[in-house]
Amino acid sequence: MSLTYADYLKIEALLNLQQPRSTPPEHDEMLFIVIHQVYELWFKLLLHELDKVKLDFSNDDLYGAIHTFKRSRTVMKTLVGQLDVLETMTPMSFSSFRDRLETASGFQSTQFREVEFCLGYKRAEVLKYLPPDSPGRAACERRLKQRSVVDHFYDFLQQRGAAIPESLRTRDMTQANEPCPELQESILDLYRTHPELAILFELMTDFDEGMQEWRYRHVKLVERTIGGKYGTGGSPGVPFLKQSLFKPIFADLWAIRHRM
What we know:
Methane Monooxygenase Hydroxylase, Chain G, domain 1, mainly alpha, 13 helices, single chain, globular
């Protein structure tokens, strides 16, 4: 029997993954489930691409990194665009099935935590929202200890002639990456003298901007849907989400903009 489209993509299994819990059925619960399942698939792809860009950086593969960031940037734009669909659900529609979520919460998305940790935005305290035996908890703990995309970016910069301060090489990998004024001088020089690197740096900035846009849109979505309420499962809701607003991933690239 020849392989079919449905077999290859496991379409039957995929379309059976949407299991609304409301009785009688609430119309918008299907939308809520589909959107969040699609987000998890995009997060899976982002992790796949970010792991590749780590190798691109450490292997001094400029054009591989450019290609990977172009794709990752487009994924981020798609993530932002999908919020337009979710925002067609009114607060009353969400309230009609919210109690069916019980203790389930978006704070428990281990893949999104992996994306944050992989990029260098590490916060060990967010692991408290993940039960010790929950699926993905071990993956998050592993990502917390690994070198981030930013750390691999340091490898790339060094191979391009930048002096990497020893403090960056020996830092605690479980802590978030922080801007480094000393390194910024080297990046600014590379911007001015190597236009091919400027293309990469701009793509990284585009991706970073997309991440910040997604955070902002997500906060406003939650705020317009539940206001100041706690999230499902007792998660802290909007105040916690606002802590990460406008925090750049590639802080050194943003820090030099006014000097160009």
